[in-house]
Amino acid sequence: MTAATPDLGQQVAVVTGGTGGMGQVIAAGLAQAGAHVIVIARDPARADALRTLIGASAASRLEVIAADLSRRADVVAATQLIVNRHQQIHILVNNAGAHFPGHRVSVDGVEMHVALDYLAAYGLMTRLDTPLRRGRARIVNVASDTLNDTRQVTIAGRPRPADLDLTEADSLADVNPATGFVPFQAYARAKLMTVTAGYALARTLAADGVTVNALHPGIVATGIIDDLVPAPLRPFRTLIRRSLLTPAQGAATALRLATDPSLAGVTGRYFNRDLETTTPAVSHDPGTQRRLCELSEHHFAGPRR
Ligand SMILES: NC(=O)c1ccc[n+]([C@@H]2O[C@H](COP(=O)([O-])OP(=O)(O)OC[C@H]3O[C@@H](n4cnc5c(N)ncnc54)[C@H](OP(=O)(O)O)[C@@H]3O)[C@@H](O)[C@H]2O)c1
């Protein structure tokens, strides 16, 4: 955190993916600034490294909740636990994410990028509605600029933005199907879904002072990078990692959006690191936003009986 970071004493923050590269730095930064930090982690034992990073005194403000965020039941249970324990939430950082190199389906029948990189964030933003509104929270969604360009190697040519067409979708199980599956595009589409739903929720939450913004952190040397490096470049992985941002540099944008006083009230925006920028037109389309939120609500309503 920077010298300008406000005192976050009395604030409650929820961070997903707090056991990973950037998430650790985000969770530690918020705790060291005085916040009570709830980390949702699929393997709570991995939070031990986070405790060490935070330091003994701030670690007493760390609360770890176990959940596999690709599972609907776990998202529902974790959010219910938080609602039962906390009246207000002031910061929510949806940071957990992964890139899956092949087509995989979650226990709920949804493609894994949709389940983890989108639905976990949607579930937290909506299932924590009451404490988020009470805390006039800042919601920060860690997306990826792959949504603006799905090319893995960008030496020449024009950007190819991610697409999202829900006109034929009866449920989110229809998104990122096995036929024609391209992992990088599927990851980018899930991030585009997070930004798209975020724009819609930014509008509905604005009346209660809740803000929703999304970001690309830069290309950062974390666990996810090993999956994202294209096969021909894998022999140069160590060299590539050295040229990337550190997790602390990558985490800076999320921490800024979560805490910078100059960004109070700023909502419905997308930042590529420090630069506020645009996302594909479909993410601003009211029909797509509405259908996405409907399908997401159906997902959390559970299987039809
Ligand atoms: N690194 C980059 O260049 C880059 C660029 C653009 C966007 N991003 C985004 O930045 C965010 C943070 O990623 P990172 O780069 O810090 O990667 P990372 O080190 O791989 O961290 C990912 C985090 O997500 C957690 N996670 C994965 N699957 C989960 C599940 N099923 N349930 C709960 N938690 C789960 C991981 O938990 P475990 O510790 O248990 O594995 C880990 O804490 C992601 O959303 C990623 O898409 C990264």
From TrEMBL:
<dbReference type="InterPro" id="IPR036291">
    <property type="entry name" value="NAD(P)-bd_dom_sf"/>
</dbReference>
<keyword id="KW-0560">Oxidoreductase</keyword>
<comment type="similarity">
    <text>Belongs to the short-chain dehydrogenases/reductases (SDR) family.</text>
</comment>
<protein>
    <recommendedName>
        <fullName>Short-chain dehydrogenase</fullName>
    </recommendedName>
</protein>
<dbReference type="GO" id="GO:0016491">
    <property type="term" value="F:oxidoreductase activity"/>
</dbReference>
<dbReference type="InterPro" id="IPR002347">
    <property type="entry name" value="SDR_fam"/>
</dbReference>
<dbReference type="Pfam" id="PF00106">
    <property type="entry name" value="adh_short"/>
</dbReference>
